[in-house]
Write a structure and sequence with these properties.
The complex is a heterodimer. By secondary structure, chain A is mainly alpha-helical. Chain A has helices at about 1-25, 35-60, 65-85, 90-110, 115-135, 155-170, 175-185, 185-190, 195-220, 235-245, 250-265, 270-290, 300-310. The longest helix of chain B is centred in the middle third of the chain and has 20 residues, at about 130-145. Classes of the chains: A mainly alpha, B alpha/beta.
């Protein structure tokens, strides 16, 4: 058990080194403003992808409405700072909790559905949230909520991301995570093992929605604006693509997926019309040759790298 | 009978006039059945007689249309499967339902779920309690795997086990919930005579070692006749006979149900 604690400390150490390296490069302006923006976007996407992975990958409930919770976080956070004059911590807490509450309320009835039906229900939910926002004048309606102060900083985004990754990792390796995995594997058997399947499905859904809310607050406070167009179902699919690319059920996979896809779309920002083409070709190739995603449901670890005798991939949280 | 009288039951499991209707079909009809502690009971019948439906009624997958089911002195009609399991009833499935993409050890650890005491924050911050309970569960799960000779497969995925080992793992997993009553749905399905014989020994040993009552659905007559103390026979949802293996063997209706009516 001590080795587990040590492993956690080592992972924190790696995170600190990574942080120092990137922060140093930002301060010395080796990394320019454009890539700084994309770094923050990577952090946000990592939070979105790993939190969706909790729902889709661990619990096996196919949700494609993550952008809705992302939007709730973004708007609720912005209301706190812009309209009510609170600080960033309050915005973060309110954004997280309100997305969680909506996730809970929506999860309770919809998680009775399974497979395609749940996918359609969550897809509809994401759109309903967006269209509601579109019609609320208080938050700017179709023109979006403007004048949001840039309160998100790189260190803040980084450490919140690390905290969430630790949360998800420890969640998975507990009885709670095991219950979710059991539901994914065989819901009837999980039920027969004394697991209240509804409770754990709703729990995973609520936690995933909350973290999407956190990501939303970081997002709107970095890009000055919360606009309904940022939260269409295309956003949900982007997040889902990251998760599937990395491998459903693998947290490190989701992290890798988020990094790779954000990086690709940043690198292709001068040719936006190519972006979707490369996206779709990448997905087709992946589904043909590696349908389980880059990592399957395995986690990338130092051990795994050692056994491969080469360190191809970098991030190891 | 008055309702007050009905709630009185001395048996571990007690089915009183239980029926379930699917559309126009009475899949299980007015079945009375009881099991006492430490008993080993068989439930047999031709294909489609309603054996598995009876299992599903007992374990809360279906709610009976009529009648009452009592377990451990409490009425369990309408209770969900997980609640029934938490009360001390565990089952296996006719078509194996393992958590196939998870390691063998995790299959068993999942079944200890309801005995875990630590809460979510304790799991996230990994308190001492978390480590203590996780170590405890891992140790208990390994012990169970040893009993079923699965310990060297502990880290293999469940789906990669040979068929017989998967059956054993399913029983191990059911036992991990620490039940009072174990329901086995055709445990010998697909086993050869030698394996069936070993299974017979094991079932008897399980009952004594874990102080269980066991209800067994089985097609293999030698297995049922060999281990069960009492046997219930279903045909078309009706309980046509019950008694000791000897009584059942010579029961005319049972013979008719299995072999068809005598000619001449």
């Amino acid at each position: 058990m001590n080795s587990l604690v040590k492993a956690d400390i080592r992972k924190l150490g790696i995170a600190a080194v990574l942080f120092a390296a990137i922060y140093g490069m930002l301060e010395t302006e080796i990394i320019g403003a454009f890539w700084e923006l994309n770094l923050v976007l990577i952090m946000i996407n990592i939070i979105l992808a790993t939190s969706l992975n909790m729902i889709n990958g661990y619990t096996g409930q196919f949700s494609i409405g993550h952008a809705g919770f992302f939007a709730i976080g973004a708007y609720m956070g912005a209301i706190m700072t812009v309209k009510l004059g609170y600080d960033m911590p309050v915005a973060l807490i309110v954004g997280t909790i309100s997305a969680g509450i909506v996730g809970f309320l929506v999860g309770l009835p919809t998680l009775r559905l399974n497979g395609d039906y749940l996918a359609i229900a969550t897809l509809g939910l994401g759109e309903i949230i967006r269209i509601c926002i579109l019609n609320i004048e208080y938050v700017g309606g179709a023109s979006g909520l403007m004048g949001i102060p840039r309160l998100t900083t790189f260190p803040m985004a980084f450490w919140i991301m690390v905290a969430i990754l630790f949360f998800i990792k420890n969640f998975k390796n507990s009885a709670y995570g095991r219950a979710c995995l059991a539901i994914r594997e065989n819901e009837i058997a999980a039920d027969t093992m004394g697991i209240d399947t509804t409770r754990y499905k709703v729990m995973a859904f609520t936690l995933g929605a909350s973290f999407a809310g956190t990501a939303g607050v970081l997002f709107s406070h970095y890009f000055f604006i919360a606009h309904p167009a940022s939260f269409t179902f295309m956003r949900s699919f982007d997040i889902l693509t990251m998760v599937v690319l990395g491998g459903l059920g693998s947290m490190t996979g989701s992290v890798t997926g988020a990094i790779v896809l954000t990086f690709i779309s940043a690198a292709l920002s001068d040719f936006p019309e190519w972006r979707m083409l490369i996206y779709s070709v990448a997905m087709i190739v992946l589904m043909l040759y590696r349908p389980q995603g880059l990592f399957g449901d395995k986690e990338l670890s130092l051990q795994m790298i050692r056994s491969l005798k080469m360190g191809g991939k970098k991030n190891d949280d | 009978m008055t309702t007050e009288a009905k709630t009185e039951t001395r048996h571990l499991l007690d089915l009183q006039n239980v029926s379930i209707v699917f559309g126009g079909l009475r899949a299980v009809s007015n079945v009375n059945m009881y099991i006492d502690e430490h008993e080993l009971i068989g439930l047999i019948g031709p294909n489609g007689a309603g054996k598995t439906t009876a299992f599903n009624l007992i374990t809360g997958v279906y709610v009976p249309t009529e009648g009452d089911i009592y377990f451990d002195g409490k009425r369990i009609n309408g209770k969900k499967s997980y609640q029934v399991t938490q009360m001390g009833m565990a089952r296996t499935f006719q078509n194996i339902r393992l958590f196939s993409e998870l390691p063998v050890i995790d299959n068993v650890k999942i079944a200890y779920h309801m005995h875990i005491q630590y809460n979510l924050p304790e799991a996230i911050f990994r308190t001492k309690k978390y480590f203590r309970e996780e170590d405890d569960v891992t140790e208990k799960a390994m012990e169970l795997l040893k009993i079923f000779h699965l310990e060297e497969h502990a880290n293999d995925l469940a789906k990669n086990l040979p068929y017989g080992a998967q059956r054993r793992l399913e029983i191990a997993r059911a036992l991990a919930t620490e039940p009072k009553l174990l329901l086995l749905d055709e445990p010998a399905a697909g086993m050869n005579p030698q394996e069936t014989k070993e299974l017979m020994e094991m079932i008897r040993w399980l009952r004594d070692h874990f102080h269980l009552a066991i209800l067994l659905i089985e097609h293999d007559m030698s297995l049922v006749m060999g281990v069960c103390q009492r046997i219930y026979v279903l045909e078309y949802g009706l309980c046509i006979a019950n008694g000791t293996p000897d009584e059942i063997r010579h029961n005319k209706r049972v013979i008719e149900a299995y072999l068809g009516e005598e000619v001449s």
